[in-house]
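Dipeptide epimerase
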Amino acid sequence: MTIAAVRTHRLSAPLHTPFVTALRRTTTVDTLVVEVVDADGRSGFGEAPQVWQVTGASVAGAEACVRQLLGPLLTGRDADDLQARCAEVRRAVVGNESAQAAVDVALHDLAARRLGVPLVRLLGGTTLRVPTDVTLAAGDAVDLAAAATRRRAEGFTVLKLKVGTDAPGDLDRVRAVRAAVGPDVRIRLDANQGWTPREAVRVIRGIEDAGLDVELVEQPVHRRDLDGLAWVSDRVELPILADESVFDLRDLVEVIRRRAADMVNVKLAKCGGLHTARTLLDLAAAHGMGTIVGSMMESQVGLGAAASLVAAYGTTAVSDLDAAWWLAWSPVAGGIRYDGATVVLPDAPGLGIANVSEAKVQSHG
């Protein structure tokens, strides 16, 4: 069965709450959905989120990559030879990881739809329920404590606190959140590259000395400062999670070689799709590193793929799959839903996406 068409859909949807980190502030999800259509009219979907400050990917750039190169490459090819098609996508372009991921996921989604099984089953898993943390956007101690109280009341038991915007005040922020939620909620920190190595050690040791029971600290220093990351990891007790420092296999090998981090956050839009993501998880496990799967600010399409990966492969800590929870409304029909702190995968073929909401996107064939 051949691939008849590759289409792109530009989506923009508002968030119910501004998302603020040490790197950026956004009030919308802006993303590209890629649709791969077979000769029988079945469609598989994938997503390339726009995140200038992390991946450098844009909707326009991802769309150009898909329309000018990856789409023509795949059109007319055998849709059933999934591994060959995904390998062709990986070889066809350098960088453009978000565009590669969108096409890779769309090919997997289409393959699962053609078999009539959920994507998680194609990947070797069975469960349709995956726990997630929820992010507390960067802010002052009072606002963070209030947000933490609300999230706990909504059933979330793992809170990811965005720090790194103001190192001297970060200890007070963590202390306020811990006081607000009590001892039964896990707190993890994400500095999004916002600290210097010395600031990171100072803040983390302060947290340790205060007994605030933090689970882990994500990307404390600049992503290219692996020496600094290793320096921090060697001087604190809390596990250090590498995120922006690891896009691909070469990055992870270097982190492992330098013993720069204890854990890794694998994201489809960073690494280029499900094939590479699985390899990253396997490599991390082989070297005793902890793992989570994360997401950019993206829709139910990307989140469905990430959650399916977690459901099939597992991670050592609760994954970071709350991005679509931030949407004020869904720009797609079908797909995952949230039940408190649980991502519920649809018991439907592929990702369970029925269609893209044409009233809220611009589409291109």
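thats it. The chain has a mean pLDDT of 94. The radius of gyration is 20 Å. bye
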